[in-house]
Design goal:
heterodimer; A: mainly alpha; 3 helical TM bundles of succinate and fumarate reductases; 80% helix; B: 3 helical TM bundles of succinate and fumarate reductases; 5 helices; 0% strand; elongated
Chain lengths: 131, 158
């Protein structure tokens, strides 16, 4: 049904929705987290490039590399989930399309997180000889 | 301007019908026809675009990690695509997106602290981000190619 009141009139006096700045702050905090990891990642590219499979595997088997790579990738997934969410919310306004895209975004990010955890932890833990 | 003055006096406009509630007509701003191009606009668009590119880039890095985990055969298969000239072009673009998103993100963090918001400073920070991305990308790939770490051939090792 068409509302005859303006949007401003309908929300006036109701107070904030209590989640206005949440996503914004999460985006900033995760970006601060990712800055040093990104610098490390670029440096790592110069270390690993050209070393072939053996070099790549030896690199990822180093506990410090495995932990930092996991932090970089999982932090990036968290950050890009928030970013893509904002993009969808900015451009897609139909309830069904928006909901579907937000779900796809979440599921893709969860899938990537699971794959990354398995690949990195699997490689590094096997090298430790614990299993 | 005619719209703004009409809004101010509240005169009836075309399109409205008698009896229907009078819609609030507000001035359209920024109006597309008087919108001056500025570098912070480009910077904003590129920040979002590079973010979307890095969404794919993160997936590709995870694919690389998975290829390492799955063994030499899978890794060779991955490198066949990742090391192909077209694959290298994708990585080149992704490193450019990474460097821009990094610099531009720091620019945004500075703005979020309330600093650097004067138009001249904001423009300078944006130009700086763009130049940083170009120079850092070329420097990284210059190093990768000239050190022999990456070779521009069909049978290359990554």
């Amino acid at each position: 049904m068409t509302s005859y009141t303006t949007e401003k009139r309908r929300v006036e006096g109701l107070g904030s929705a209590r989640h206005g700045a949440g996503t914004w702050i999460k985006e900033r905090v995760s970006s601060v987290f990712l800055v040093p990891l990104t610098v490390w990642a670029v440096w790592s590219v110069t270390e690993v490039a050209g070393e072939g499979y053996a070099g790549a595997r030896a690199w990822m088997e180093q506990p410090l590399n495995a932990v930092l790579l996991a932090l970089l990738v999982l932090g990036s997934i968290y950050h890009m989930h928030l970013g893509m969410r904002v993009i969808v919310e900015d451009y897609i306004h139909k309830t069904f399309s928006k909901g579907a895209l937000l779900m796809i975004n979440l599921f893709v990010c969860l899938g990537l997180a699971a794959a990354a955890t398995f690949a990195i932890a699997g490689t590094a833990i096997t090298a430790l000889g614990a299993f | 301007m005619s719209q703004a003055s009409a809004g101010a006096t509240g005169k009836a406009r075309k399109g409205g019908s008698k009896g229907a509630p009078r819609p609030l007509v507000r001035p359209l701003s920024p109006h597309v026809q008087v919108w001056r191009w500025h570098v912070t606009m480009l910077g904003s668009i590129l920040h979002r675009a590079s973010g979307v590119a890095l969404y794919v880039g993160t997936a590709l890095v995870i694919a690389w990690a998975a290829a390492v985990a799955m063994g030499p055969d899978t890794y060779a298969e991955f490198v066949r695509y990742a090391g192909h000239p077209l694959g290298l072009l994708v990585w080149f673009g992704l490193t450019g997106a990474l460097f821009y998103h990094l610099a531009s993100g720091l620019r945004h963090l500075l703005w979020d602290l309330g600093a650097g918001l004067k138009p001249k400073t904001a423009d300078a920070l944006t130009n700086l981000s763009l130049w940083f991305a170009v120079i850092a990308t070329l420097a990284l790939w210059g190093w990768l190619l000239f050190s022999g770490a990456v070779r521009l051939s069909l049978t290359m090792t990554l």
